[in-house]
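RECORD TYPE: inverse folding
INPUT: structure tokens
STRUCTURE:
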């Protein structure tokens, strides 16, 4: 029987590329996303099932998990790619409602999805979950609500890995660098991100593509990664290494 993956945020960007990778790998793919038009279209293109879901809505997540588990019996992998970016802002200028909105999706939403599917997976005794970190998991940036949330994702992933591991369930995260997704392209177009600076700071002198992240998530969910849990894996074209290296006064 085919394995089943749930991809939140699967209608766009990293989630879309991940859904494509799992579909190509023979998984039954369940896309959960609040963008109904795009979600239905992508699902149609790759033979996935789409359901509308807002991960900020606790009751909706419970109902969604019940629906998937009723139709598929078991879920083998969950990828939490639903998330929103933030424009640069000083903490002193940030409306706390903006913080709450971003936290409700990126952090609380990820936690709720881990809870409902984690219960089912630990009861069954197997499964793999991948959460979505960022460069801001490891380095500060001028997107305070976003960055604080992405640091939380690392801790959440480690706590869940420790809790679920004895029950056969692995929990990891990826920390993508600058990925050319619709969300990132929109920020470049509006002047919020500078593509030249991004490429200069990447050791490989390039953007990360959504498929690069999808491939890493595929690996982390596969049996090839059966001894890996609790890690937050950078997929950043060498941005973390280069940004520190070039910050020193003497660079050869
Ligand atoms: N693009 C990057 O450079 C980058 C880098 C590091 C991390 N990330 C993270 O990757 C994840 C995906 O980002 P992306 O760049 O692919 O963005 P994207 O906008 O292309 O895709 C995000 C998807 O999540 C969905 N979504 C947003 N809020 C939702 C909600 N409340 N409920 C359900 N679905 C919701 C959107 O509809 C969209 O389809 C995010 O967590 C983001 O923080 C992105």
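DESIGNED SEQUENCE:
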């Amino acid at each position: 029987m085919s394995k089943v993956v749930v991809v939140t945020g699967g209608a766009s960007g990293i989630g879309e590329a991940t859904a494509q990778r799992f579909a190509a790998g023979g998984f039954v793919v369940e896309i959960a996303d609040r963008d109904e038009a795009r979600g239905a279209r992508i699902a149609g293109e790759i033979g996935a099932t789409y359901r509308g879901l807002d991960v900020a809505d606790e009751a909706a997540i419970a109902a969604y998990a019940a629906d998937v588990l009723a139709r598929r019996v078991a879920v083998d992998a969950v990828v939490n790619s639903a998330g929103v970016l933030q424009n640069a802002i000083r903490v002193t200028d940030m409306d706390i409602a903006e913080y709450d909105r971003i936290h409700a999706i990126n952090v609380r939403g990820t936690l709720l999805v881990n809870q409902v599917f984690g219960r089912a997976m630990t009861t069954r005794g197997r499964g793999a979950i991948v959460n979505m970190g960022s460069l801001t998991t490891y380095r500060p940036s001028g997107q305070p609500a976003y960055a604080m949330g992405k640091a939380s994702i690392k801790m959440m992933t480690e706590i869940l890995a420790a809790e679920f591991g004895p029950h056969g369930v692995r929990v990891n995260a990826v920390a993508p660098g600058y990925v050319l997704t619709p969300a990132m392209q929109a920020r470049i177009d509006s002047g919020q991100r500078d593509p030249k600076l991004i490429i200069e700071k990447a050791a490989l002198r390039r953007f990360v593509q959504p498929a690069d992240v999808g491939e890493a998530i595929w690996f982390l969910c596969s049996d090839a990664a059966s001894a890996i849990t609790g890690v937050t894996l950078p997929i950043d074209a060498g941005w973390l290494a280069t940004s520190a290296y070039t910050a020193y006064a003497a660079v050869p």
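NOTES: The longest strand covers residues 169-176.
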